[in-house]
Design a protein that fits this description.
This protein is α+β, with helices and mostly antiparallel strands. The chain contains 17 helices and 21 strands.
Length: 541
Amino acid sequence: VKNESNYRLLGTDVGRVDVPSKTDGSAQYGMDVQIDGMVYASIQRSPVSKAKPVSVNDAEIMKVKGVKRVIKLPYGVAIIGDTVEATKNGRDVLDVKWSKALGNTFTSEKAMGEYLKTAGDAARKAVTWKSKGDVAAGMKGAAKVETFEYTSEHNYHAQMEPMNATAQVSADGKSAEIWASTQGPTIAQLVSAKVLKTSPAKIRVHSQLIGGGFGRRAQPDFVVDAVLLSKIMGGGTPVKVIYSREDDVAAGRMRPMTAHKIDVGMDQDGKIVGWKHRVVGESAIGYTNPGRLKKSKGKDVLVMAGSEIPYYGIPNWAADHVHEKRGARLSAWRGIGAGYTKFASEATIDKLAAAAKTDPVDYRMALLNNDKAKNVLKAVAEMSDWKRKRKGTALGVSFSELHGAHVAGVAEVSVDSEGKIKVHNFWMAIDPGIALQPDNIVAQTESNIIYGLSQSIKEQVTIEDGEVQQSNFHDYEVFRMADVPNIEVKVMPQGGIPRGIGETGLPPTAGAVANAVRALNGADLTQMPFTPERVKAAMKG
């Protein structure tokens, strides 16, 4: 491999090949695909995971103009039509009776209390994700043990392009062409081959540009829909499946809901000698790929990423996962587990700094065990003018490492009398090892910050009796343009190898905001998202 000093292209901002087409409108996304003879499909999925349709009013639906067929599937009912409007009108008169299934009794608000109780139950078996030293010995020898609890709600991906896929299965049912905006074309190929009971070599996937994925489009369910329906229609009929926003929210693959218990053991001088982070939640990999979870012996990176803290000089630490099984539909979500695990750990670090009457940046600087991490933290402190006192606002800091990239963020916030948080500025320094394309890293990190702030302050899915209660952006709120703060990003490569930066900017966001609010008014925010109601209650507390 060349020495970095001899690079000609890497490290420079070479123009991206997708920019011209995205600018002039000629770019083709999955939604733009048109195939001769294509029909459209809309699917009413079961409101509860693994429930099946028992009865359907087929005859009434077939009276709707443009509806060609009503197809009962193991997981829902599909309406095939000549137009999108026909499928929608057919859905409007659809009446389905569903079977009972696991998840019918799952209510997230009630379950959250149960999760917290489980987190504190030492008798509940847990899978150790990662560890260092001897945590039991560290805790036993500690002069004092402090306990901290946190929770996070389910989150929906909220990608802009509606989920869709187009498939044309051959008349003999043994081969297919697929057009889809997918994060996993190989997975789509393999799963489609399994559906058709054929060789993957006979499945051709045309990957389209993606209008937002964030982990949702890594799942092949929407591709399976199109392949299965094209096969059922027969005769080589191309079928385009389109999810409405309501369809996608109701049957969305969510980021798992979690509860956290962090025990910190300290010696007589206040030095941390033991750290145990216990996470309670359903397994996302267990839902999407049970075989993979079994091979990993219960270790779920999608849930537990970020719970490890190797960059802090703590001699004994462990991160454990207590598996729940509640029947929610789950998947990877941008930043995976680090979106909430880093919130829990960094909020805890700030509280320990306050107890030690030490500046939060100085406290972390003393804990960090390598110079690269310290340089990143120092840089973001300088960017935000950390030591300067503000009037009406306060700063909060958070540090993270994900996919080997060091990153630190500082949020400047204010809170009104009703508990609404406003983020005025967000500064971030990131060390990607080698910056292959610096401006692209800046753009990606800005996106991560916005996405992360949105999940920190607004986004949540609630489930009652197994059914998602939200349906669209009026009740699943995301950050709007007016919510976005001034953002400044510093890319500071410190050598090594290129690190993944697609989601490394997200993990520090929640901790930085929570720590800023605590610095401003003393409110201890322990439940994501930090809604006005929760902030106001914490302010009173």
